[in-house]
From TrEMBL, chains A, B:
SMART domains: LeuA_dimer. It comes from Demequina activiva. Pfam families: HCS_D2, HMGL-like, LeuA_dimer. One of its GO terms (molecular function) is (R)-citramalate synthase activity. The keyword Transferase applies. SUPFAM superfamilies: 2-isopropylmalate synthase LeuA, allosteric (dimerisation) domain, Aldolase. This is Citramalate synthase. One of its GO terms (biological process) is L-leucine biosynthetic process. Pathway: Amino-acid biosynthesis; L-isoleucine biosynthesis; 2-oxobutanoate from pyruvate: step 1/3. It comes from the Bacteria. Belongs to the alpha-IPM synthase/homocitrate synthase family. It is an enzyme of class 2 (transferase).
Length: 531, 531
């Protein structure tokens, strides 16, 4: 370990959300922020209050409801408008109103962008930077500069780009974060320019890298080696175009390979779980080959050297996967699981300590189920049902005889279709036959199931299906692909939320399982007995 | 441009195939190799003949059937066994028998791996290296060294690792490729070690990087900056664990950012199409954020600066996307398309030159369809049907009245299901009602459709559905997710293969479209008229 410390600044909620296909709600941001704090980042950039209404709402809600152990919130915004004062600029005022202790100001650090995009004179741009910093630091906030397009600007007109940094310093900037906004730099370029800037200025430097050349992680490392003490990035490398620097990879490289203290606390050992949990919230499929935390990151195809890997794994891996909460994978049976099952049970209120035979059975069922495509990380309710069934605590609320779904083209339009489902079951001592319609087969099944049960278990009318995700799991090792369905259900009165998972050869069978389990779990939690 | 030239060595077919979930058939390899040649790589590593039976078959078939414009084939193998001669080692002989002009020998370059994995003495390992090289170069082959675990070995015992390189040089090695087999190096490490080796040896050096630290591309660039003149990698960054260096990103960085000649020919401008075509063969979903060639690589979320981007795109992108055959994306209507539609038409035998009004209509339909989830790159047959329909050349072989699919749980087992489909249509002047069964809804629909048509169009019995891929397209901008189905059909007699695409709100509607189009296309190609 060296004495060097680097500040980790996460921008998943702001720059990461620029990714194509990502659309974070306020609730998503409220769910992601505590995970970032658990990871141990120093700063969580929450969005652009004032410019984006849901970001204004996020800061208001986060200020009331979230308490962080490690992180501080940062509000992102722009320098003041041309020709006005910072104090009178509503966009600048909104940054203060957000009550974030840190404000990050994006500044044009490339003379061409000042002139052509902002359409202001080079001197006015400098005045906008200095005055906005001076106003906000005068209000007692810590203010960070995002020097946009700095590297491209420096190559075009180094002196002007340096003057933008000096303007921020004159206004009291705490960190000058140099941004490779277009992502085209290579590590050599970054090293050279960061070192040159460091010789001219004493204010701490930061790095904000994008991955357009495939070098975002390396560029972040190069900047730190050249003197930067602040790095920005996004979990899972989210971001516009090719994404921002993958924050976990940068942090793991800094801590594991260079002995630099980056995270607060010891969240690195939880980073695989945290990265996956965030991908379930963003509903962006995790990338199996992602460094450190990917499902394949420490997966070895069993080959000639299988026994050597098992005896001497350190010869075949660049670091110990446990350091990032990941695991060496070769055979499913190689993955130990009892301890984590015991912990998971404890979380859910089941004391399983010492019940080795039971833990063994549950571990085996989880292993087999996950190999078949289930994922309990994202479906705690399904895990609890599995655990309860091994404990003999799962009441059979009903018995299903048969179900069927019909999808048919609409009369007169063979290119458009309607769906209808029929469920036959016994509940409360009676036989029920119910039909449901829908815009697709799953929707129709859900309606039929609820109609059949509403008489005996009216409580289910409170359970609302709020999210439905389908993923085709790639076939591996010559087996057929399977479909996985994740369903989120919310209790309309209590607000309690639960997730269930189903897996099957097609979306209909997988959905049936997840739907039925969501109702069973809801009834159990409501304390209902079999009727 | 500098005078520097770097040899590009592709190992997609060997090391790339180690990726979890990838399983390349001989036919897959035969389809990928010409695409690599078109890209312009210098060497295509085809596999390990002798050790892997389908690789032996690939070399035999490729020698007969493939002619490359640029590339040469390399066979990968090991040094001779301990305690025997190279000439008598069947594994070494199989490398010669492959008739590949280049042979790449993996050698233990880390003393710990020689002793613990290979279980031979350090001196025997050196003898195995030198003698195997001497034997194969004596047979007139160009032989390349893959110095496995070189970087880890060098850090542990630099002198021994250097002696393994010297042994290869003594045996006549043409290139010493230094492998970061565990993928844990950072660019600083690579620069230092490659430069140090270059000071001790005159033989050209190469770099083989893995992405475990997220630095494979940067490490390849660092090695070239430090003197390496040969780089290995895989298209799309395929490979075990986190993958190998992404070959296209490395090549684009070398050529565009450093002015180094890497590819033979001008295949870089085709690299986006080639990378995507390879991902269709491997059936590994392309990664949208992949540098240079990803679908999102040059996609900008329209925001405050949309107009500035349009006027001055070079201020907002690190390079021109056209250099890699990709395109700036902001609004669908921003993507020019007439020229490519004209070219695509020409490929399919339609002369559309000068037909501007028609080209405009087809371009619009393609744009709208791709925005809705279709992909014509992977479904030429569907594109041809679209083009023919604009040309008024699509005969209506049949009229569909209605279709329906039923999925129902099996009697006695509500967790298992069966599928049945009914199709009602008119063909050959008659009304047909046909039923089909299957293990899933799509399979049942396919059977019903064929049964209905077999009397009037018996030719369709020759069309075999050989592949069926489903992808859920992520919702973007608040719209619902859609399902895309790609179907591959083969004519059993002629061997002709075609692909069709269908898109719909669920897998059943999407499949219906792709199935029906596959039959229409097959009939058209067979020269059948409407009956």
């Amino acid at each position: 370990m060296t004495d060097l410390t680097v500040e980790v600044y996460d921008t998943t909620l702001r720059d990461g959300a620029q990714q194509e296909g990502m659309n974070l709600s306020v609730a998503d941001k409220m769910a992601i922020a505590p995970l970032l704090d658990e990871l141990g980042v120093g700063v969580i950039e929450g969005g652009w209050p004032g410019a984006v209404p849901k970001d204004t709402e996020f800061f208001a809600l986060a200020g009331k409801e979230l308490t962080f152990r490690h992180a501080q919130l940062a509000a992102f915004g722009m320098t003041r408008r041309a020709g006005a004062t910072a104090a009178a600029d509503p966009q600048v005022r909104a940054l203060l109103d957000s009550e974030a202790p840190i404000i990050t100001l994006v500044c044009k650090a490339d003379i061409r962008h000042a002139e052509r995009a902002l359409r202001v004179s080079p001197d006015e741009n400098l005045a906008m930077i200095e005055e906005t910093f001076a106003f906000l630091t005068g209000e007692g906030r810590r203010v960070i500069m995002d020097a946009e397009h700095f590297f491209d600007g420096y190559r075009h007109d180094a002196e002007y780009s340096l003057r933008t940094l000096q303007a921020a310093v004159a206004g009291g900037a705490d960190v000058l974060c140099l941004c490779d906004t277009n992502g085209g730099m290579l590590p050599d370029d970054v090293s050279e320019i960061v070192a040159a800037v460091g010789q001219r200025l004493d204010t701490p430097l930061g790095m904000h890298a994008h991955n357009d050349s495939g070098c975002a992680v390396a560029n972040s490392m190069a900047a730190v080696a050249a003197g930067a003490t602040h790095v920005q990035g996004c979990v899972n490398g989210y971001g516009e175009r090719t994404g921002n620097a993958d924050l976990v990879a940068v942090v793991a490289n800094l801590e594991i390979k260079r002995g630099i203290v980056a995270l607060k606390g010891d969240g690195l050992v939880e980073s695989t779980r945290i990265a996956h949990a965030i991908s379930e919230i963003t509903n962006i499929a995790p990338f199996a080959r992602q460094p450190y935390v990917g499902a394949s990151a420490f997966a070895h195809k069993a080959g000639l050297h299988a026994s050597a890997i098992r005896v001497d794994p350190d010869l075949y891996q660049h670091t110990q996967p446990e350091k990032v909460g990941n695991g060496l994978r070769m055979l499913v049976s190689d993955m130990a699981g009892r301890a984590s099952i015991e912990l998971k049970g404890k979380e859910l209120g089941f004391d399983l300590a010492g019940q080795n035979e039971l833990l063994g059975r549950v571990t085996d069922r989880v292993k087999h189920a996950e190999a078949a495509g289930y994922t309990f990380d994202a479906a705690d309710a399904s895990f609890e049902l599995l655990l309860r069934s091994e404990l003999g605590e799962n009441p059979a609320f009903w018995d299903v005889e048969t179900w069927r779904v019909r999808v048919a083209s609409k009369p007169g339009d063979p290119t458009d279709a309607d769906a209808e489902a029929v469920v036959k079951m016994r509940a409360g001592g009676e036989r029920m036959v119910a039909v449901g319609e829908g815009n697709g087969p799953v929707n129709a099944l859900d309606h039929a199931l609820r109609t059949a049960l509403a008489g005996v278990y009216p409580e289910i009318e409170e359970f609302e299906l709020t999210d439905f995700k389908v993923r085709i799991m790639e076939a591996s090792h010559g087996t057929d692909a399977v479909t996985r369905v994740l369903i989120t259900t919310v209790h309309q009165e209590t607000g309690e939320l639960w997730r269930t998972v189903g897996v099957g050869p097609n979306v209909i069978e997988a959905s049936w399982e997840a739907l039925a389990d969501s109702l069973v779990y809801g009834l159990l939690k409501a304390g209902i007995d079999r009727r």
